[in-house]
Amino acid sequence: MTANMYFLSSILLFVLTAFETSAKSVSISNVTTYLNSELSLNNGLKMPILGFGTGGDGVTPSVVYDMVINAIDAGYRHIDTAFIFHNEIEVGRAINDRIRQGIIKREDIFVVTKIWNTFHSRARAAEAIRQSLSNLNLDYIDLLLMNWPMGYKEGTIDEPLDKYKLIIPSPVDYVDTWKEMELSVSDGIVKSIGLSNFNSQQILRILDSAIIKPVINQIESHPQLSQDKLINYCKSKDIHVTAYSPLGEGRLLDR
Fold first, then answer.
1. Three-state SS for 244?
2. Measuring CA to CA, how many Å separate 211 from each of 113, 121, 178, 182, 207?
3. Nearest-CA neighbor of 155 among 134, 124, 126?
């Protein structure tokens, strides 16, 4: 496997639709087919099917600016980052530079970021959203996801550990996090909200209390981890699924 093949698998995101494709059909040869394709979310807004992710092993913030510049120039209009990637500043700088240069308009780019596990209380979630907006230097976020359905002890450490080297959990219910995400939509600083790495029971808990329905569940999905049951469940609830690592972090290319 070449470094370029691994890199492609790390950054590729693909939205799985009920009638167009599945993770099994994703290949390098048909990537460009989807660059200009969009789908309608359950709130009526549009989302580009093919996304450019900015996280992954070996993807340091120092190279992210050039990555995003190259992605925009190649035609990507769906850019995915997260607080935990620690590269929102570089992602935002690249997007804003291309806007300033007249290459794109703000409305041309669909920007996704995520609330990390140490920001699950409502106050901390609000702080995380404000910080992401500041880092990205944007007036709004197109799609905000809850990164995982569990909280960690709040503080300045991304992964707080106890003396046994185990994650210290937070007692905060992720439903509370969702309520703050809903408020960000009401405030106009986030257009759409969704989930990441949620199973069907966790999604149902959100749906039972939600005022605003999740538009996306972003999960790892590829031929070695098809997740058909979860994908079908999401489809039954009118929630689209975004696959990350749809090439199995390069394993599917090493054949």
1. strand
2. 21, 18, 10, 7, 8
3. 124
Residue keyed to tokens 């087919």: 33
Distance of CA 113 to the CA centre of its chain: 6
Q: Does a structural domain hold residue 73?
A: yes
Round to whole Å and give the CA distance between 186 and 192: 10
Does 139 reside within a domain?
Answer: yes
User: Is residue 255 in a domain?
Assistant: no
Amino acid, single-letter form, for residue 63: V
Place of tokens 């209380």: 121
Contact 7, 251 (CB under 8 A): no
CATH number, domain of 164, equals: 3.20.20.100
Domain that holds residue 105: 13-17+27-250
Distance CA 8, CA 223 (A): 16
Question: For 22-41, b where at least 16 C-beta lie within 10 A, e where not — what string?
Answer: bbeebeeeebeebeeebeeb
Domain count, the chain: 1
Q: Let me know if residue 43 belongs to a domain.
A: yes
Look up residue 229 and give its two tokens: 């049951």
Closest CA to 212 of 183, 251, 243: 183
**Tokens standing for residue 176:** 């509370």
Contact between residue 45 and residue 112 where contact means Cβ atoms under 8 Å apart: no
What is the residue-level pLDDT of the chain in tens, covering all 255 positions? 233 332 333 345 656 543 333 444 444 455 566 777 899 999 999 999 988 999 877 788 889 999 999 999 999 999 999 999 999 999 999 999 999 999 999 999 999 999 999 999 999 999 999 999 999 999 999 999 999 999 999 999 999 999 999 999 999 999 999 999 999 999 999 999 999 999 999 999 999 999 999 999 999 887 877 889 999 999 999 999 988 886 655 444 455
